[in-house]
Write a structure and sequence with these properties.
The complex is a heterotrimer.
Chain A lengths: L1 H4 L1 E12 L2 E12 L3 E5 L6 H8 L7 E6 L2 E2 L2 E4 L2 E4 L2 H8 L2 E4 L11 H13 L3 H14 L15 H13 L5 E5 L7 H16 L4 E4 L3 H7 L2 E6 L2 E6 L1 H6 L4 H10 L1
Helix pairs in contact in A: 4-5, 4-6, 5-6, 6-7
Chain B lengths: L10 H7 L2 H4 L9 H23 L5 H8 L2 H33 L3 H16 L2 H14 L2 E5 L5 E6 H4 L2 H26 L3 H9 L4 H31 L11 H11 L4 H30 L11 H11 L5
Antiparallel strand pairs in B: 1-2
Helix pairs in contact in B: 4-13, 5-6, 5-9, 5-11, 5-12, 6-9, 7-9, 9-11, 10-11, 11-13, 12-13
Chain C lengths: L6 H16 L9 E3 L5 E5 L9 E5 L3 H4 L4 H6 L1 E9 L8 E2 L6 E2 L1 H13 L2 E8 H9 L5 E2 L7 H5 L2 E8 L1 E7 L17 E4 L4 H15 L5 E3 L4 H9 L5 E5 H11 L6 E8 L8 E7 L5 H13 L2 H8 L23
Parallel strand pairs in C: 4-7, 4-8, 11-12, 11-13
Antiparallel strand pairs in C: 1-2, 2-3, 5-6, 9-15, 10-13, 10-14
Classes of the chains: A alpha/beta, B mainly alpha, C alpha/beta.
Chain lengths: 257, 318, 335
């Protein structure tokens, strides 16, 4: 099927420096529609920066990102890429879901209000309709009874599931996950991964930065291994994670197991 | 051979006493007799202070009673409330604008905001008020128009700047400088991730601030701003320099006319201030409680809810 | 328990009720009227609790009026500044017993002067500092506020038309045994309060220097305002308070029936040992008002109104025989 292999995200020649340090050093990579792409690598390898560049939370110094063929955060004008207005960028982001390591739920709003806010404000969805959809999503992540709770009354795993539901509320064409289980106690990791597996099974396009090699092996369609701002190796998990070609990848995987 | 008993009591004897029936009884908590003593001493000292206050003839409580509801005193009180209220509102609005300017990415706005706070925290309020009250002598007309260009409307400065307007203006300008820092500290106390999450959801910039950042910042702002407000309430007394007499000014003036009653008049002012700050404290408590939603796992009960729960516990009310 | 929950609401209601009733006050009518001959009739010493009101008639004197600057005549009002905020100085200038209206011998005399000019008196109360700023900026035509003529003030840009002796006095507690005998040496070892920025402070500092040279001490204390000073006197933190003599008798009268009565402990000239201090109507230098002011005061002295107003306040001893424009004042250095 050709639609399944169309690139949802395409990153070309991405470069980003902080104070002279190249965090992203000429990165090319593709994530395909309907697939789960896992980005792995040691800390400081640029994984999170790359993920944040996809929805322009992190503007690139050079290179560009497209989502479903549309340039993100920039436009082509007289042969150069120019940054879009703040408004236009925000509009593009409203169709790209982003799940943070630290959940970043709004603590002063109830769980339901956390989910309803963005669809009503950015997409003009009527409040009642947004609320009904929010309750469906909460049921889907197993938190139907927590609609009126406040985030700090929930466990870490529950908060991260709410954060996923909040990202889904915008009906995104793409979901980005930034180490979604790293801030969780070990016994809570499973419930969040179960939600991710469920989403993957339903054909949601996802890019996941993760340390959970087991999850990447079982769920991902494509694995990208980053080190020092460069793509060292990428391919199906059976290749990259089981029999890697590169010494650097083997070394990294050896440390984890 | 008689068995040699160990020098201390055998542990077996103690074990015997710990019978199953004992295990089921409640443990008697440690008594704290010194807490009772300290409480009693504090009450005696308080009673003594109250007695000294009531019986000392210097306080002239009959004069206090005469002055407490005098129309001039109440007019001063109203002026105090008006000045405090207006300066608090304008000062806070100005402070929010200044704080946002200071946090913006525009270096000019940042510098202007920094400069404003620097200069208005440096100028003594009394000098600022004296200057504003006499600015009419320096600029007899004020005009609206293009900067350095033609003007469309002209006002006589004396008509526009009544003493009351001067006082509100001076207090607000001064208050805004302090409020700016309080608001800024509140905003930077909100986790950076909140702005990121809001902007990842595509919320418009103003909505990010109004709906996500300010409500959370408010929680950190309230205690400091309540302090600032109470300072302002009493600080309004400097407006006498612009020929306005608020509560303390009235008390001072009347005391200078009736110099035998200085202490009771000062007490009148004090008691009114106590009443006003008490009201502010009550309001602060409830506003703080409102904005603590979500910040605490459970919102604490109000003093009245707590009191009723106590009564219910001893069976007085249901 | 619903009644308990209502307590803060009740307190709010009381505060609001106070606010509402305070809005219903009315302005006190002016103390001047015009009689059938077109002369102003000024009621002096009204609004006091220690003396009787007196009605004094003042005719408009065209010869003097002609010398008043045209801008003021066109306005029809003489703007008179008083520096009695927030603390007044009874019986000179202060808020009277109606608790609202500016009262006192300074104000009443200024009304009579306005009457000679044929102008309406517009008395405005300000803080002491603001009064001087407003005289300088022309917002006040003249200050009548127990202002002493000093050479320093002349240098700062003021003209003067004198109208009363400036006599200082020492106020002490009634049970004090100390009296000022006119010689600074009687102050050795004493603690004396004085208002900052006044000529009496200048005098006191010089005495202190002289006493130090003789190896003796004189402690000087400044308080924020007159109320605080009276409290310090009553509590025994200061032995005496040096300030304008007219206020001393008045304050002694007011404290007579309180727990801390006071008395006068001796007087002194406000311009030092060799010069009689003078109180003067004060204008901005060169605004042309000092001359007509002096003539108006002389007119009131000659025709008896001046004596009447001083008598009404019991201040006959402070009278001058003639008004002078820019008389010699307390020297810049009085040594």
């Amino acid at each position: 099927m050709t639609t399944l292999t169309r690139p949802a995200v395409s990153v070309r020649g991405a470069v980003k420096s902080y104070n002279g340090l190249r965090v992203l050093d000429d990165i090319d990579f593709i994530a395909r529609t309907g697939e789960v792409t896992a980005i792995i690598g040691p800390s400081g390898s640029g994984k999170s920066t790359l993920l944040r560049a996809i929805n322009h939370l992190e503007p690139l110094d050079s290179g560009f990102v497209t989502v479903d063929g549309e340039l993100i955060g920039v436009r082509l004008y007289r042969g150069r890429l120019r940054e879009l207005s703040e408004r236009a960028i925000l509009r593009q982001r409203s169709r790209i879901g982003f799940v943070f390591q630290n959940f970043n739920l709004f603590p002063h709003l109830s769980v339901l209000a956390n989910l309803v806010e963005a669809p009503v404000v950015t997409q003009g969805v009527p409040r009642a309709e947004a609320a009904a959809r929010a309750r469906e999503l909460l049921a889907r992540v197993g938190l139907a009874d927590k609609a009126d709770a406040y985030p700090r009354q929930l466990s870490g795993g529950q908060q991260q599931r709410v954060a996923i539901a909040r990202a889904l509320a915008l009906r995104p064409r793409l979901l980005l996950f930034d180490e979604p289980t790293s801030a969780l106690d070990p016994e809570l990791v499973g419930e969040v991964l179960a939600v991710l597996r469920d989403l993957a099974a339903s054909g949601t396009t996802m890019v996941v930065v993760t340390h959970e090699i087991g999850f990447a092996r079982d769920v991902a369609d494509h694995v990208v291994f980053l080190d020092a701002g460069r793509v060292v190796e990428q391919g199906p998990p059976a290749e990259v994670l089981v029999s890697p070609r590169e010494e650097r990848t083997r070394e990294f995987l050896g440390k984890l197991i | 051979m008689t068995p040699i008993s160990p020098p201390s009591a055998p542990p077996a004897a103690a074990e015997d006493e710990l019978s199953p029936t004992l295990a089921s009884k409640k443990v008697v908590p440690l008594r704290h007799p010194w807490r009772w003593v300290a409480g009693a001493v504090a009450l005696v000292v308080l009673a003594q202070a109250a007695h000294a206050l009531v019986t000392n003839p210097a306080f002239q409580w009959d004069a206090f009673g005469y002055w407490f509801f005098r129309p001039v005193v109440l007019e001063g009180l109203v002026l105090t409330l008006e000045l405090t209220g207006l300066a608090a509102v304008f000062g806070l609005l100005g402070g929010i604008v200044l704080a946002l300017m200071r946090l913006s990415r525009n270096p000019v706005l940042r510098a202007v905001s920094w400069g404003y706070v620097w200069i208005f925290r440096s100028i003594p309020l009394i000098v600022l008020l004296l200057f504003l009250a006499n600015v009419t002598a320096l600029y007899s007309t004020l005009s609206l128009g293009i900067p350095f260009g033609p003007s469309f409307v002209e006002f006589s400065a004396n008509d526009l700047l009544s003493f009351f307007v001067v006082a509100v203006l001076g207090l607000s300008l001064n208050e805004a400088a302090y409020a700016a820092e309080i608001v800024r500290s509140g905003i930077i106390s909100v986790d950076q991730g909140q702005l990121e999450a809001a902007s990842a959801l595509g919320l418009p910039k103003w909505r990010q601030y109004r709906r996500i950042i300010l409500p959370q910042a408010t929680r950190a702002i309230i205690p400091s701003y309540a302090n600032q407000l109470i300072g302002l309430l009493k600080g309004t007394s400097v407006v006498y320099i612009t020929s306005l007499l608020e509560l303390f000014g009235v008390v001072q003036t009347q005391a200078s006319t009736n110099s035998g009653q200085i202490i009771p008049l000062l007490m009148v002012g004090t008691v009114w201030y106590v009443i006003l700050t008490s009201l502010l404290s009550v309001v602060q408590y409830y506003v703080e409680r409102h904005f603590s939603r979500g910040a605490l796992r459970t919102v604490p009960p109000t003093p009245f809810q707590r009191f009723r729960a106590r009564l219910r516990a001893v069976g007085v009310a249901r | 328990m619903p009644r308990l929950a209502r307590i803060p609401v009740v307190v709010v209601a009381v505060a609001l009720a106070g606010g509402v009733s305070a809005c219903g006050s009315t302005e006190t009518p002016a103390a001047a009227a015009v009689d059938a001959n077109g002369n102003q009739v000024v009621t002096v010493a009204a609004n006091t609790d220690f003396t009787k009101p007196v009605q004094i008639t003042v005719p408009k004197v065209d010869a003097i009026r002609a010398k008043v600057p045209k801008a003021i005549l066109d306005r029809g009002r003489l703007v008179i500044g008083s520096g009695a905020l927030p603390n007044g100085s009874p019986p000179l200038n202060y808020i009277g017993v109606d608790q609202r209206t500016l009262t006192g011998v300074e104000i009443d005399l200024s009304r009579l002067v306005a009457g000679v000019f044929g102008l309406t008196a517009d008395e405005q109360n300000a803080s002491w500092q603001n009064m001087f700023v407003r005289i300088q900026s022309g917002q006040f035509d003249v200050g009548f506020s127990n202002i002493t003529v000093t050479e320093e003030r002349k240098n700062q840009g003021y003209d003067f038309a004198s109208y009363r002796q400036d006599n200082l006095g020492f106020e002490v507690n009634r049970n004090s045994t100390w009296n000022f005998d006119g010689n600074y040496q009687s102050l050795a070892g004493k603690t004396v309060a004085v208002d900052t920025g006044t000529n009496q402070e200048k005098i006191l500092v010089e005495w202190q220097t002289k006493l130090r040279a003789e190896g003796k001490a004189l402690e000087i204390r400044n308080f924020a305002d007159r109320n605080s000073t009276y409290l310090a006197l009553a509590s025994g933190r200061v032995d005496a308070y040096l300030y304008p003599n007219p206020s001393i008798a008045h304050h002694a009268l007011q404290t007579a029936n309180t727990p801390n009565p006071t008395r006068s402990g001796g007087t002194y000239s406000g311009a030092g040992a060799t010069l009689q201090g003078l109180i003067a109507a004060t204008t901005k230098k060169g605004n042309g008002l000092a001359e007509p002011l002096a003539e108006a005061i002389d007119y009131l002295i000659e025709h008896g109104q001046y004596a009447q107003v001083l008598a009404a306040y019991g201040l006959k001893d402070e009278a001058v025989a003639k008004s002078e424009v820019n008389p010699a004042g307390l020297p810049v250095t009085n040594s």
